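Technical note accompanying the year-one report. For the benefit of new consortium partners, we illustrate the data format agreed upon in the data management plan: each record pairs a sequence with a structure-token string. No post-processing was applied to the example shown here.
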Amino acid sequence: MTHAGHLSGALLDDDLTTYRRLRALADQHVAAYRLIEHEPEGRTEVVSAMRGHELAQSAKCLVVAVRPTKHTCRYVLAVIPGDRRLDLQRVAECAGGRKAGFADRETAERLAGSVSGSIIPFSFHPDLELVVEEDLLRNDVLFFNAARLDLSMALATEDYLRMARPRTARITESNGA
């Protein structure tokens, strides 16, 4: 059963391409994963409840524009636990920049290959550097929308690490503890 008919509008070609690349990569690595169908939703808090797991297990994916100099820009796909807030200054420092801000929606969707709310914790674009919050990787399983608002993936963290080979760093705000 598919929920694609519930989407407001058809899936974008980029969404399908990114989804297919994700599935092919997981299959190629013989990864332990399962797909979870749900109502179309991109908000981390809401979709985590639909999927039935802790918010900390959600891989929230945010595209950040980092400015190494006043006239240059690079992009980072920051992946953080769903219960955390991104620390833009830490992302800037991690990527060798002076300052950072969220990329505009059009740029984020173009680089990620899917609509906002369905961005996956993998980069298939050469101009999008992947950086993952270390604490996210403490979970045995990661949950994220699979480049579609109506479908998520639960992926074993050890397989994610093998597949994505991400750079890891502390890129979230401290919990005040």
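Partners are asked to follow this layout when depositing records. The chain has one domain: 11-169.
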